[in-house]
C-alpha cells in the first residue's frame, strides 16, 4: 500500500497523552509484540501520530493510533466498497450460512517501501513506524477491498460475499454448504491467510454479518444493536446527539417513517441552532428508540414474487413501502421516507404523489434503469386504506413553522401554461409538413401563444436567440436538437 500526500504537505507531530499504569503496560506489551513479529520498527520520522485506546466488546482496551492529521493530507483513494444492500440481496434464497473473520486482516498488506515513515506514531517507549497496513488510515478500506476479494473472484457472488475482512458463505442446502465452506477454507490456506475462530460461525440458519442478523426469512437488526439503542441515554450536547443519529441512520430502512420520527432531532443539528433539550425533543428521542425496539423484519427481496410499492405524500413529507406477496401474506422488504425540500413544498398535491413514486423507485432500483424497466399499474388508494404509507407521511413533526405555512402552492406545470393540445398517434398517416401546419394552427388558436407570436413577428428572434422564430413556429434550441416549444 502506498501513501500519497498532498503536494507540499506532511503530517504534523502529535502530542503524547498521559496514561494510567495499566495503559502503559498495554503499550509496552503491544509495541514489544509487534516489533518481534515484524509489524513495526523504530523510526526516525519527522512526524508522529498520537496513540489512544478503544474499548473492546469484552471491556479490555485496544491500542489505536490517531491518524486524523495524516488523513487530512493524504490523497484519497477512489476505490469503491461494496454496497451492503446489494450484498444482502445476493443471499435472498440461501438457507444455511457460515461467517468467517480474517485474523488481523489489514496486517496482510505491506506498506510500500519508502512510505513507512508516514505511519510513525509516538509512545513513551519511542517512535515507531508500521511495515504493514495499520488500522485508521483513510485509504485502508479501499486498498484492502481491492486485493483480498480478487483471491476469491471465482466464488464471489456465487456462494460467498466479502466485505473487507468479513466473509459470508451461503448455500441452498447443508450438503452444498459443506462443499462451499471447504472450498473457501482451502483457498484461505493456499493463500496463507488465517481466520479468527472465536469470531467465526459455522453451518447455521442465523448469522450476524456487517451489523445485521441474517436468516432464511429475512434481515433483522442485530439484537445487541437494538439493546444499545434501548439503553442509550438522552444526549446532553450536539456531539452526543449526532452520535445517536449516526448510529440510527445505519438501520433507518427498518423503520416506518424514520425521517418523520427524527425530524425534531435532526432540526437541532442545523447550523447555528442553539442547544436545548425540551420535552418535544425528549419525546422524539423516546419515539425513535421505541421504533427501533419494535422494528419490522424485512424479508429478502425475491424477483419471482409479485411486488407492491405503496407510496404517499403529505404536505411535508413523502414515503414508500416496498412489499411482496408471499404464500402466508404480504411482508415488507423495506421502508423509505424523507421530508420535502423547501422547493418541493410548493408542489401541487399530484406532483408530490408522483415525487413519492419516483423517489421510491429510485431508492429501490439497484441497477438504475429508471422507470423504463418497470411494468406497473398506478392505483389510487384513499388514505384510510393506504394505512402504512399514509402514516409515514402524515406526522405532525414534519409540519412547517407558522411562518412557512403561507408558502403558496404551485404545480410543476399549471394548465394555463399549455398551448392547444395537438394529438397525433403512431397510426396516423401524416407528413412532417402537415404536422408543422397543425402546430401553427394550434399556436394561432391559443389565446396565450397568439400574443406571443404577434410579439415575435414584431421583434423577430434576435431578442430571444434560444427560441428562434420561423414562419409561425417557435423552436427551443437544445444542445443536440431543436424542439418545438409547445409550452412556455
UniProtKB/TrEMBL annotation:
Cross-referenced InterPro entries: DNA/RNA_pol_sf, Retrovirus_Pol_polyprotein, Rev_trsase/Diguanyl_cyclase, RT_dom, RT_RNaseH_2
Molecular function (Gene Ontology), one example: catalytic activity
PANTHER family, A to Z: PROTEIN CBG26694, PROTEIN NYNRIN-LIKE
Domain called Reverse transcriptase: residue spans: 35-214
Pfam families associated with the record: RT_RNaseH_2, RVT_1
Matches recorded under Gene3D superfamilies: 3.30.70.270, HIV Type 1 Reverse Transcriptase, subunit A, domain 1
Keyword ATP-binding part of the UniProt annotation: no
UniProt keywords, alphabetically: Multifunctional enzyme
Domain of life of the organism encoding this protein: Eukaryota
Protein name: Retrotransposon nucleocapsid protein
CDD domains referenced in this protein's UniProt entry, alphabetically: RNase_HI_RT_Ty3, RT_LTR
Keyword Hydrolase (UniProt): no
Lineage: Eukaryota, Amoebozoa, Evosea, Variosea, Cavosteliida
Organism: Planoprotostelium fungivorum
Amino acid at each position: 500500500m502506498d501513501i500519497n500526500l498532498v503536494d507540499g504537505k506532511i503530517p504534523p507531530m502529535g502530542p503524547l497523552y498521559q496514561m494510567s499504569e495499566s495503559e502503559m503496560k498495554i503499550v509496552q506489551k503491544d509495541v514489544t509484540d509487534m516489533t518481534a513479529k515484524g509489524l513495526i520498527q523504530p523510526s526516525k520520522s519527522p512526524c508522529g501520530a498520537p496513540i489512544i485506546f478503544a474499548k473492546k466488546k469484552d471491556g479490555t482496551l485496544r491500542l489505536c493510533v490517531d491518524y486524523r492529521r495524516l488523513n487530512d493530507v493524504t490523497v484519497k483513494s477512489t476505490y469503491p466498497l461494496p454496497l451492503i444492500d446489494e450484498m444482502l440481496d445476493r443471499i435472498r434464497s440461501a438457507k444455511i450460512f457460515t461467517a468467517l473473520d480474517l485474523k488481523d486482516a489489514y496486517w496482510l498488506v505491506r506498506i510500500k517501501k519508502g512510505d513507512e515513515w508516514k505511519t510513525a506514531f509516538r509512545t513513551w517507549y519511542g517512535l515507531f513506524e508500521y511495515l504493514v497496513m495499520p488500522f485508521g488510515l483513510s485509504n485502508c478500506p479501499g486498498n484492502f477491498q481491492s486485493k483480498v476479494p480478487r483471491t476469491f473472484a471465482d466464488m464471489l457472488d456465487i456462494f460467498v460475499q466479502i466485505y473487507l475482512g468479513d466473509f459470508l458463505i451461503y448455500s441452498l442446502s447443508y450438503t452444498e454448504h459443506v462443499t462451499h465452506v471447504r472450498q473457501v477454507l482451502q483457498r484461505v490456506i493456499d493463500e496463507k491467510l488465517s481466520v479468527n475462530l472465536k469470531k467465526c460461525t459455522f453451518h447455521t440458519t442465523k448469522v450476524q454479518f456487517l451489523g445485521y442478523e441474517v436468516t432464511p426469512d429475512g434481515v433483522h437488526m442485530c439484537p445487541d444493536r437494538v439493546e444499545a439503542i434501548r439503553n442509550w441515554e438522552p444526549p446532553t450536547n450536539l456531539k452526543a446527539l449526532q452520535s445517536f443519529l449516526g448510529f440510527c441512520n445505519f438501520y433507518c430502512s427498518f423503520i416506518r417513517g424514520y425521517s418523520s420520527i427524527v425530524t425534531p432531532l435532526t432540526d437541532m443539528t442545523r447550523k447555528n441552532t442553539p442547544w436545548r433539550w425540551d420535552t418535544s425533543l425528549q419525546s422524539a428521542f423516546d419515539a425513535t428508540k421505541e421504533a427501533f425496539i419494535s422494528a419490522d423484519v424485512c424479508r429478502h427481496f425475491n424477483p419471482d414474487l409479485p411486488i407492491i410499492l405503496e407510496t404517499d405524500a403529505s404536505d411535508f413529507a413523502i414515503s414508500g413501502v416496498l412489499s411482496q406477496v408471499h404464500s402466508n401474506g404480504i411482508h415488507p422488504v423495506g421502508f423509505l421516507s424523507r421530508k420535502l425540500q423547501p422547493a418541493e413544498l410548493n408542489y401541487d398535491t399530484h406532483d408530490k404523489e408522483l415525487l413519492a413514486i419516483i423517489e421510491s423507485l429510485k431508492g429501490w432500483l439497484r441497477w438504475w434503469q429508471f422507470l423504463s424497466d418497470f411494468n406497473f399499474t398506478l392505483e389510487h388508494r384513499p388514505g384510510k386504506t393506504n394505512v402504512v404509507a399514509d402514516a409515514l407521511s402524515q406526522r405532525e413533526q414534519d409540519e412547517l413553522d407558522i411562518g412557512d405555512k403561507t408558502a403558496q402552492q404551485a404545480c410543476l406545470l399549471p394548465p394555463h401554461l399549455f398551448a392547444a393540445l395537438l394529438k397525433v398517434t403512431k397510426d396516423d398517416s401524416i407528413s412532417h409538413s402537415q404536422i408543422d401546419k397543425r402546430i401553427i394552427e394550434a399556436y394561432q388558436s391559443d389565446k396565450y401563444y397568439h400574443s406571443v407570436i404577434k410579439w415575435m413577428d414584431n421583434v423577430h428572434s434576435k431578442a430571444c436567440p434560444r427560441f428562434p422564430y420561423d414562419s409561425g413556429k417557435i423552436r427551443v434550441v437544445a444542445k443536440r436538437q431543436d424542439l418545438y416549444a409547445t409550452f412556455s
